[in-house]
Structures are given as structure tokens and as C-alpha cells.
Specification:
The structure holds two protein chains of two kinds. Chain A is largely without helices or strands. Chain A has a domain of about 280 residues. Chain A is about 15% helix and about 10% strand. In chain A, about 50% of the residues are buried. Chain B has one domain: TolB, C-terminal domain (Neuraminidase, 6 Propeller). Helices cover about 10% and strands about 40% of the residues of chain B. Chain B has four helices and 26 strands. The longest helix of chain B has 24 residues. The N and C termini of chain B lie far apart (about 55 Å). The chains are: A little secondary structure, B mainly beta. Chains A and B meet through β1, α1, β3 and α2 of A and α4 and β19 of B.
Amino acid sequence: MNASKILAAAAMLTLAASGSAFAFHDGGVAYCEGCHTMHNSSGNQPMNKKVAALTGVNYLLQGTDQSSTCLNCHGSTAAKAGGYHVLTTDAVAGGTVPSNYTPGGDFAWVKQTYSWVASYGAAGTSKGERHGHNINAADYSISADTTLTSAPGGTYPAANLACSSCHDPHGKYRIVDAAGTVQRAVVGGAAAGTVGAVDVNQSLPINGSGSYGAMPTATEAVGVYRLLAGPGYLPDSLAGSGVTAFTANPPVAVAPSTYNRSEAATDTRVAYGTGMSEWCSNCHTSIHNSTAAYDAGTSFIHPASSDSKLGATILGNYNAYVNSGNFTNSATTAYTSMVPFEEGSTDRAALALHAVNDGSQTAGADTNSNVMCLSCHRAHASGWDSMTRWNNKSEFLTVGGAYPGAGLSGEAGYGELNHGMTQAEITATFYQRPATVYATYQRSLCNKCHAKD
Amino acid sequence: MSFQHKHTPHDKGKTRKIRLQFLLVALVLTVLSGPARGETIRASYLYTLSDFYGPVPCNWVSLTDDAGRFETYVADVADRSVRVFNSSGMEVYRFGDDGTSGTVSAVAVSPQGDIYILSRKTDHSAITRCNFRGEPQGKVELKGLPPEFARDFLPDTILYRQGNLYLVDRNAMKVAVTDLNGAFRSGDDLGALLGFDEKKRRDSGISGFSVDRKGDYLFTIPVFFSAYVVSPDKKVRIFGERGGTPGKFNVVGGIAADDRGNIYVADTLRCVVMVFDENLKFRTEFGYRGLGPGNLIAPMDLAVNNDMVYVSQSRARGVSVYRIFTD
């Protein structure tokens, strides 16, 4: 057995406990061979058969494209959903439901197109491409958005959208101190000063993920939240395209270590700190609006910004709202991950205390809280048009105390309420929450803040 | 007094026959003991599993071999079907796509021809025994499960081996072995065996799983870039070294063994199937990313039936079939 290790089970305890090999990214750049091939050659066979061995492929990637490379690991069948997976490969409209319940959502929704006929005879369609970010992934049958050919509010081309459009695959951005200072170490960084203070000639090495609340030390940094890209970032595929590089810092946020799970019993609470909307505006620039601009009457777009504090009325609504017609909640129990908010904080240590999945942190908003893009949208995809967290195109989210669904009898089967989705699929969009947490005829969750129901 | 045996022509023939039998036994033993040092293993692409309209364009389906009848079963969650293919790779039967079997996760086939369907929903799974036509004959209720299997055990994989059903929850990393009526016989918590705490178990999980002819568990854990062989007496052998060159693991998926002891491991990112001998020494690999015949796109599940290897993959590439040769 010279090539193998025969170990008794007892010895395994020591071995298995000795490291955390599952942290492939470890907050920064993974090992090069994990994604790249130097010569497009494996055993003198081309790793990508589109070109000959030893001639190379774009970006020297092993995968067919950027997103397919990521999804080779981050995709799974429904049976293996959970953990670090963000795509259910065998989900199909009307059948197996997208089964990954990450806060960002399951990319399988962008492949699910639904059609229905309303009770009054009108036909409706919700195209899959309307449900999320259409990351081009040829190996997983995800193609570019055919309607929105560039980012709404910006110029980022849909044909180039990939996981690496938002996530820096090399994870160069890092948090270097307790205050959350972000740096990117680049050659000539300080002199070049690409976009301000983040680029430096010398920084700290990254030694772990920054997504779960780990703090940097005097000698080591942690990565930024979810390897999101920061100022100066522009994928190589867009070099010379005229698309401008990112200008905003990655957002400050902390997730619980187990985040891909059913929320039937308790919420998965990501403690969003600040900067999410500004970061989204790297691509969706003209859609982004601050409260200051809104109040000044210069842009009548729903505010979503770090300065978009909830204000006394909205804050009161959020903390009182239970469901339609029931405004008896309290500030200690008002939180719902279906309508999250930013805490207005850069204190990652404090945020980490709130990032739980056991239901122990249910406090609602306070005067520091602000609305953000993710208050209404999921970052990857959802079951609904415009990747909103709930159906914004029907009057009721529940009917007679249950979720609607195609094929059901009575009102629940009305196409205008179920939008062609089965009850199981609609339940999945609510991350398996029982319909009983809502009113028997629950209206839009816009009302969590606006209380018009 | 002694008796001396004189060779007669009949005896000579008998001796030749004995020698021949001895040689035959030796040959069989040699073959069964795996490839001799220096032997070359190679794979030749044969075809993609097809129906009369051409290759069946499925993705990441679950594969089951029925060696006795030389048939292959393909469970496709996406269209809820179970397809049966003959030894020529042609579909000969299909069932389940009318929804009567629920969402089929995997199937197992007994020598008697019973088909055991594992269907799964969010919070429970069910086993249905079907006849050769896929018609339900009865539910298989799990009985006598110990407490550690009575909760947090949601199998998504089922195999038949030696009169037993192996039920595997790959997320929880647990295996329950039952008789054909669902009565618990034994169980293994592979996560505990490997010393994983709850978080590490949740963050890792098994990708490929199978049981070889000796009753060893074979499984892969992609986030550890490793494959594992666990013998019935719980000896653990680990192999695999992460990397992108031949024989190394990037994102490992399915795993299966042939009757010679060779172990096949699919690498989803590298788009190859690697072959290791029974000493876990890397011998060869085949496939490679591409759209041509014999290439693979994101290979996942594997099944081995005699000298044939079946590989499920993505991009609607279906199930590619290779024949293994030992030169």
C-alpha cells in the first residue's frame, strides 16, 4: 500500500481535526491549479478540447467559462443541496424545486419559466431570465439575459455577466483592522492610486475568510465579505470595453457559518452592516438613490443607501408589523430575514453577535438601520420577477392560510396568485416558512415597512 | 508391497486436463487480482446512452448497474423518470415520468428483479419496491433504526449489495444497511468515523458513494480533495492529492469499483475519470473537457458494469459509456 495511507479510525480523529481543508478560498486566492491550467494540457491531452493541448485557453481556465468553473463546485443536485452550493442543477419548473436556501438565492430560478392563465382568462408568463442575475455558464445551461442586455442603471454587458463580475475570484480585497479598513495590495498601488485609498504597495496577508466575523490581527488580514470585489476591480473580459471599474468598497456584513438551510423554524440572519447598496451601484449606478437625493427631489427612485435610515414612521412600522392587519410586534422580536435591513454599522465584531441561525437574535430595526437593495431583492436569484424576495405582482401571498399553487382548487389555483408555480415552489421562495407565519390573506411584504395592509 | 502407477494415454489426457484447469484457475485469479505491474489500462468511448431519437440529453443523473442482466438504470430527478438501458446502450423501458413514483432520487435493483425506488421530498424520503415494469408493489418501511438514525437521517442514495439495501444520507454522512424489507441490520456514521464535528460534516458531505465487491465503502469528499475506502472492519484508506494534473483531484464526484478492484473517480472540474488500482495507485484517466465524442463536461456519477464504465455529466450531454481494456 505504498501509495495509500492505511489508518485506523482512531488515527483519523487526529488527522481530520488538524485543519480546515474545506476552506478552498480561505478568504483570498485559492491554489492556482484549482481553477487554471498552465498549458491546457493534462497528460498531454487538451483540458479544453476547443483548442489543442499546449496552446492555452482564455484566462487559462480549466472550465468552459468563468461561471461554469465556479459551478463545478458550487452546483449540486437537489439531493445534495446545502452548504456552499448556490445552484440546484436538476430543478425544473413544476417539479423539483430549487433547493438551496442561501441568503443570495439559488441560481436555478433563472432557468425556471412559468406560465399561467388568470381566473379572468388573461395569460401570464414569468421568464426565468427575469428571476436573477443571468450568469453565463454554458455547462449549466445559463445564458445571457435576452431582454436586459446591460445592467439596469448601468452599462455592464449581460453577455459578460459571470460569477466573477461581482466576486473577485482572486480575492485580493482584505480587511486589515478592527475598523474594517479595506485594502488591495497591488504593484505600484499607492503611486497609482487607482481609486483612492484601497490600493497599497504593502498590506497584510490574508489568512482566512472575512464572511463569518473573524477579525484581522496585527500581522494578518481577513478577506472581505463573500470575496466581493472593490474599487478598481474590472474583470479582464471587459478590459477596453468602456465599462468603468468598481468604485465602491465591498459591503460590511457577517453571515452565520451555516447559512444554506431551511428557514421553516428559525431565520438565517445575516448581519448586514453598511455599504450594500453603494456596492450594488458599482454596476446599477443610475438606479441607486440616496435619501438625500430623494428628499431634495432630484431623483424619485426608492431610496436604498447607507443614509436611507428608516426614520420614525418606517421604523415604527417595521417593529410593529407581524402580518397583514396585525401590528402588535415589538422591537425585540420584529426581525425577519424576508425583509432584512442594514444595521448602519462597520463594527464587524458587533455584527457577528447578530449573525445567527438559531432564532436567538430577533431584534428589529433601530434608528441606525437603513434600507438597502437586499431588503427587497435577493443577490443571486429568486422565484419572482426582478429577483424580489416575494411576489410583488399579486395582491395576496397566501390564500385562506396557505400558499397558492398551480393545480390547486379554488382561489389558491388562480394563476394571478400562483404565477404558474406549484405550492412547493412558492414555499421554496419563502425558504420553507410555513404559510401560517403570515395572515390568512397576506399582502405584499412591502408592508413590513409601509404598513398599508 | 507397493503399487506403482503406470501412465496410460488416459492418464496423460487427465493430467493435461488438470494442468489446463490449473492454468485456467491461475488465469482467473490473475485477472481477478487486478492488473499486473506494467499492464496498461485504457478506456475506449463506445456511445452515449440513447433512445430511438438519439442520445438522451440528461444532466447529472443517478446511475445504477444491474450486472446480472447487464442493464443500466438512470434516475433523472429533472423529469422524474427511471430509464432502463440494455447492454447496447439503448433505452428499453421507462417509468415514473407520469409522476406516480414522486421525485425519484435513486434506484437499486435486486437479482430477483425487484426495483427499489428511493424518492425524496424536503423533509422525508420513501422507498417503494416495484416489479420489473416499475409498478409499485409496496412500501419498504425502515424498521428498528437506532436513535442516531431515527433522526437527522434523510437518505438520498440507495444501493443493493449481497441481499442488503444500503441507504445513504450523503449530507449527514450516514449509511444504514437493511434487509430487503427495511429491517435495520447495521449502520455507520462516516462523519464520526472520520472525526468530523457537526460543522465540518455540514460543510463537507459526501459526493460519490458506492460499495465494492468486498463490501468496502467507497466515497469522495470534494472539499477535502479526497477519496476514501472504508473496509467492513472500519479500516480507513484515504487517497487523492489536489491539483490539476493527471491523477490529481480538483472537484471529485462519483466513485465506483470494478470486479478487479480498480477504482474509478470522476473529477467534475478536470472533466476526467481517473482509474486507480486496488493499491490506490493512479493508472490512467480518460474523457477530458470537450464537446467531441468521448469527451466529458462536468462528469458526476459513475457506474461500472463488468468492463463498461458509465459516466453522467452536465450540459445535457447525457451518459457516456466507455469500455475498459487491460493490455
